[in-house]
UniProtKB/TrEMBL annotation:
InterPro entries: F420H2_bilvrd_red/Heme_oxyg (IPR052019), Pyridox_Oxase_N (IPR011576), Split_barrel_FMN-bd (IPR012349). PANTHER family: HEME OXYGENASE HI_0854-RELATED. Gene3D superfamilies: Electron Transport, Fmn-binding Protein, Chain A. It comes from the Bacteria. This is Pyridoxamine 5'-phosphate oxidase family protein. Pfam families: PNPOx_N.
Length: 157
């Protein structure tokens, strides 16, 4: 597991692509684990607060309750027009850690979410993946980063 800051230090070019894709669109798709173990997908927004990649949530929203119980998540960047231009498809996964106490209150004061009781989760990463079409349009180029393994690139026809 790695913080965003560690990811950005270990793989700065890839982290730059991932961040640019997240910032290109406001809404993304978050997958969490329901109480019964089945998946739940929810719309969400991401942001950076300090050195951390974070998501906020309305008080007691299902996605927040899922993450409190089981922090595992997958997050798919909005694919835009589907052309895969501008960095391709981006997904990250890892574990969400709820930020509470003085740090959560400071975030509320700075960001001013709709409710002062909003949840704040820091997203720690187990992997980041980009999928793009090769320059010659003949195959996919998949770039995978994991904390213990670094970057690996795959070509898939």
């Amino acid at each position: 597991m790695a913080t965003w800051e560690k990811f950005a230090t270990e793989a700065p070019d890839l982290a730059g692509v991932v961040r640019e894709r997240f910032q290109a669109f406001r809404h993304h798709v978050l997958a969490t684990v329901r109480h019964d173990g089945s998946p739940r997908v929810s719309g969400t927004e991401v942001s950076w607060w300090g050195a951390d990649l974070v998501i906020g949530s309305m008080p007691s929203a299902r996605k927040a309750l899922d993450l409190r119980r089981d922090g595992r998540f997958a997050l798919h960047v909005n694919p835009g027009d589907g052309s895969m231009e501008g960095g391709g498809d981006v997904k990250i996964s890892g574990r969400a850690v709820e930020v509470v106490g003085a740090e959560q209150r400071a975030w509320v004061e700075e960001v001013r979410p709709p409710s002062p009781d909003s949840h704040l989760f820091r997203l720690d990463l187990t992997e980041a993946v980009t999928t793009a079409v090769s320059d010659d349009q003949t195959h996919l180029v998949i770039t995978l980063w994991r904390p213990a393994e670094g970057i690996r690139t795959f070509h898939r026809a």
